Amino acid sequence: MTQQQYEECIRACLECMEACNDCFDACLKEDHVQMMAECIRLDRECADLCAFAAKAMQTNSPFAKQICKLCADICEACGNECKKHDHDHCQKCAESCFRCAEMCRKMAA
Amino acid sequence: MTQQQYEECIRACLECMEACNDCFDACLKEDHVQMMAECIRLDRECADLCAFAAKAMQTNSPFAKQICKLCADICEACGNECKKHDHDHCQKCAESCFRCAEMCRKMAA
Amino acid sequence: MTQQQYEECIRACLECMEACNDCFDACLKEDHVQMMAECIRLDRECADLCAFAAKAMQTNSPFAKQICKLCADICEACGNECKKHDHDHCQKCAESCFRCAEMCRKMAA
Amino acid sequence: MTQQQYEECIRACLECMEACNDCFDACLKEDHVQMMAECIRLDRECADLCAFAAKAMQTNSPFAKQICKLCADICEACGNECKKHDHDHCQKCAESCFRCAEMCRKMAA
């Protein structure tokens, strides 16, 4: 893993954190919150683990790879849930989640 | 503030964190998620700030008092929202929030 | 996993978070901080992941098992580092870490 | 507060989080960890509160202003400690802290 890939992975985590937090807020304001329940749950967990993964990489944690592997799994689950919904915030979130999952898998490899 | 009061405040924060996280999960499973949107939002924020306040006290942070003051405000807002709802998890959460708010105010004094 | 084991694991995580945060603070006040550098690093990461794991269990996260598996690995690393040092806070922290690692492995099984 | 100022404040918090986490890691690797103890303590707290403040803004928290006010105080304390030390990572961190404190104060106004 080059320094550039490392920095790209931190960037992807912070962007995914932002997209998930935006989506969490927007889902709570939708007319049909009921349908968004699983999305809200995963948005919270994904945003928080992305922040945790960024911190691990920024501090050169000996567990950075393992944390990124887990982050990739949660990002993928969150992306799969988000892409089911037509709202812009969900589609945008799914995109950030899949990109972050891909970067985290490279990091964990 | 005595050592005993300090420890009681940490305990109150950790109990409030638990009650808020339980309530967050239970609200997402309710038949009328719509009505619970504000509760879900505040449960997340309150749980996370309670964890932050516990960490601040456990590490003897120079900002423990200021963090506890903010924690008291968020606990009170979360408690006021939760007590509007009849669900057991909301009533239980409101009780933990008000108790934590009281302990945090003493800590911040 | 019974409900009782689940609650015991949350308890073990919160106790380990406290022991690690206490140890973090105490290490920074030691005469020979140099020797404690790795302990300080792991205390932070272990405390924060224990809080994360407790949150995951409290919210019935679909990733609770995977998070607990990772938590067990970090607790074990932190316990192994702490037990090298004679300070009471390190010995106490090692004990909490090993107990938490054990509970998290059962949870993840 | 315009949308642009809001986004600049989130950006400042995430940059400050990164500078503090970099500094935390670098301080633990210095020859004289002893001298860096207060810096290490504040780096952790500042990084974690910056992440918390970014989350609050990203989710449109009703407490975003209060959290940013507290964040400004901690950033200022961390910046004042860091600027005492000649290491590049400390000087860079102080700069990020002061910039973040300034943005957070505007946000809280």
Automatic annotation (TrEMBL), chains A, B, C, D:
- Which domain of life does the UniProt lineage start with? Bacteria
Q: Name one Pfam family in it.
A: Csp
PANTHER family in the record: CYTOPLASMIC PROTEIN, CYTOPLASMIC PROTEIN-RELATED
- Protein name stated in the entry: Four-helix bundle copper-binding protein
